Amino acid sequence: MKTLPFVLSAMLFLGSVVSLRAEEFKLSHDGLTLNANLEIASDNGLADGVVLITHGLLAHNGMEIIATLQKLLGERNLNSLAISLSLGLGDRHGMYDCAVPHTHKAADALDEIGAWIAWLDKKGAKDIILAGHSSGGRDTAWFAAERDIPAVKKVILIAPGLWSADVVGRSYKERYKKDLAPQVAKAQSLVDAGKGDTMLAETDFLYCPQASVSAATFVSYYGGDPAKSTPHHLPKIKKPVLVVAGTEDRVVTGLRPVVQPLADGKKLKYVEIEDAGHFFLDLFGEDLADVIAEFVKGPES
After folding, report:
1. Distance from C-alpha of 153 to C-alpha of 48, rounded to nearest angstrom
2. Degrees (nearest 5) of the Cα angle 51, 138, 289?
3. Is residue 134 exposed (0-12), middle (13-18) or buried (19+ Cβ within 10 Å)?
4. Going by C-beta distance under 8 Å and a sequence separation of 6 or more, which residues neighbour residue 101?
5. How would DSSP label each residue in 167-189?
6. What is the pLDDT of residue 299?
7. What pTM did the predictor assign?
């Protein structure tokens, strides 16, 4: 594994630690400072393994589902590292500010997940479980499919993102009252001409109306690359995979028909939590943590 330069915000321990519960750490990567929240369960150390959690679209590691999940995993004697993707910004905290120009790409998450795996591996965390929520689940599946890292033992995808041109096009039109295809064609023509860095002003993008976004960024999120859909990656992942869905999820819909046929109950497990929504709020968080803990502590396939 390639060693990446890193800086610590505080002294990290070697070996077991009893008192440390939660602390932010920082990592230098590709000219940016990344940050993550490390939570160590009582009497544990990094050698006991870590669940590395990636958040959803334009979000951050302090959002409710991530913060709650870290706490609940700790109660189940599981360590966790919740990362914040940079989205092209140094030491980013909180939701992405739509007023800030977008130059990040959909695939940027892969290198950042890899950077944190290298950081954990260097510190002695040999048993790493990858987990991700929503688009972070898609990113996690994408990473695991393309990069088979020995330190990574299992993969957990929580309401992971799906993608199809038809669905995305309909969603875009419902939200912004305009067709997506001409926007993609315009951005793609700039990329094809070697002008992907061209900024498109007042462009509706993801959750951000009238944003400033580079042509390459627009294409990376809205172009036809099948890598943006979780099921595309599932057959390629060599490690055991758990996919968790909420039956009342209104954000990522249609997981069952595309994932359940692939699930054999061993290499790929598919679990639905009855009545849970996309963010597994309240007691559904407990259910989610129970499912994850059972999978993590169970035998490797």
Report:
1. 13
2. 35
3. buried
4. 199, 211, 212, 213, 214
5. HHHHHHHHHHSS-SHHHHHHHHH
6. 77
7. 0.91
